Prior knowledge:
Layout: H1 4-12, H2 17-22, H3 33-51, H4 56-69, H5 73-88
Helix pairs in contact: 3-4, 3-5
Amino acid sequence: MLTLDKLKAYGVFGGDIDGHARSTGKDKPVITDADWYLIDELLMALDTVASGMASAGFIERLERRMAENTADQATRDALTELAARRRKSP
């Protein structure tokens, strides 16, 4: 289940799972590889929707998947905002 804390951890490493894997210490954020890959997949799907290339069925499946895999609406909103920020960055 994705939470705001897991999205924050993902952001600390800029989406770089290798950087996360190499980090050490008690301050290392708790996020599993499965969570990391799920965030990556959802971000790519949100990019597809934003590009206008997604079918209505794709959008419905994405919305359902996000609802099933996120803790709350705030987490879904943060994920959507993260996708938008990544599209705007060079």
